[in-house]
């Protein structure tokens, strides 16, 4: 390991290239997570609802029929998780060959179409793979071959998966946000990114900051302005970066969210009354703060 770190330190371009290739491969798996995790969660919710009905509403269960309740809410196979079944064309069901699963290149080789039925394959898949590779390559350039790079890459993988799911489902899964929040606190036990004291305060302050805005907005308008997943995501960044970065993250995420929302309405691709997921903007702002947060804060304070 020491020899590998020494080699990567001598050839930073090689380290950045390897980081890109590895992360792009992980990006292929993140596409699976973004697509399948919401389905798995909905099935779990269905099972919990069925268990509740069987215990407290037996007459309703008898009327509806237990077989109908146990039937999955979607058309996917009964055994369905992040590993099983293997990747296949959603139209013809042909199993995707390993060389067609190569990050970015596989999609280009296929011309964006299924090798069997020629059905179009969404460009979202290579975009996620390339974006994952580029963001982790940026981390490799900034941190070098260090533990900060390794852990920041793990965080980036989680942020990309959460952002994709939030864009699709308006949902930030606890199975992603909470483990990363706790990981941030554990990493800062020895001060990897900030002190443990600042991380603890940051986790609480991050959650409570948006929680307070949520309740203020709800009491004022009677509407819900954001979801609880946004609170947890902000707490996550507080745990990783400390409370000092929270104002910057809130400011950046609000600015980006406002600009994107206005552009979407100008282009008439989004109606004003339709909700916009806030998680991707928090994730982007937090990732920027992870790399350039201290520089931005120092520049701002120096310009006063």
TrEMBL record:
Belongs to the peptidase A24 family. Residues 21-143 form the Prepilin peptidase A24 N-terminal domain. GO terms for biological process: methylation; signal peptide processing. The chain crosses the membrane at residues 12-34, 147-165, 171-187, 199-217, 237-266, 278-301. It is found in: Cell inner membrane; Cell membrane. This is Prepilin leader peptidase/N-methyltransferase. Keywords: Cell inner membrane, Cell membrane, Hydrolase, Membrane, Methyltransferase, Multifunctional enzyme, Protease, S-adenosyl-L-methionine, Transferase, Transmembrane, Transmembrane helix. It is a multi-pass membrane protein. One of its GO terms (molecular function) is methyltransferase activity. It catalyses: Typically cleaves a -Gly-|-Phe- bond to release an N-terminal, basic peptide of 5-8 residues from type IV prepilin, and then N-methylates the new N-terminal amino group, the methyl donor being S-adenosyl-L-methionine. GO terms for cellular component: plasma membrane. Plays an essential role in type IV pili and type II pseudopili formation by proteolytically removing the leader sequence from substrate proteins and subsequently monomethylating the alpha-amino group of the newly exposed N-terminal phenylalanine. Residues 154-262 form the Prepilin type IV endopeptidase peptidase domain. Its EC number is 2.1.1.-, 3.4.23.43.
């Amino acid at each position: 390991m020491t020899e590998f770190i020494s080699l990567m330190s001598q050839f930073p371009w090689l380290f950045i290239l390897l980081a890109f290739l590895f992360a792009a491969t992980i990006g292929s798996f993140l596409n699976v997570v973004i697509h399948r995790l919401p389905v798995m969660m909905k099935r779990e919710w269905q099972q919990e609802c069925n268990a509740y009905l069987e215990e407290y509403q037996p007459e309703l269960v008898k009327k509806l029929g237990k077989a109908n309740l146990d039937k999955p809410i979607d058309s996917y196979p009964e055994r369905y998780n992040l590993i099983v079944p293997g990747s296949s064309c959603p139209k013809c069901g042909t199993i995707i060959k390993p060389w067609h699963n190569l990050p970015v290149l596989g999609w280009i080789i296929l011309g964006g179409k299924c090798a069997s039925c020629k059905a179009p394959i969404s460009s979202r898949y290579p975009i996620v793979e390339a974006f994952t590779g580029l963001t982790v390559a940026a981390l490799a350039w900034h941190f070098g071959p260090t533990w900060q790079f390794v852990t920041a890459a793990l965080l980036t993988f989680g942020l990309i998966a959460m952002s994709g799911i939030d864009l699709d489902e308006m949902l930030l899964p606890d199975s992603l946000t909470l483990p990363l929040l706790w990981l941030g606190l554990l990493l800062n036990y020895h001060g990897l990114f900030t002190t443990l004291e600042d991380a603890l305060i940051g986790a609480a302050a991050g959650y409570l900051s948006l929680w307070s805005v949520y309740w203020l907005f709800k009491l004022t308008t009677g509407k819900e302005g954001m979801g609880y997943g946004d609170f947890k995501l902000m707490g996550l960044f507080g745990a990783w970066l400390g409370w000092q970065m929270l104002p910057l993250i809130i400011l950046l995420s609000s600015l980006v969210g406002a600009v994107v929302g206005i552009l979407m309405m100008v282009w008439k691709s989004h109606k004003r009354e339709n909700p916009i997921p806030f998680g991707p903007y928090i994730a982007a702002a937090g990732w920027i703060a992870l790399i350039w947060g201290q520089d931005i804060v120092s520049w701002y304070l120096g310009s006063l």
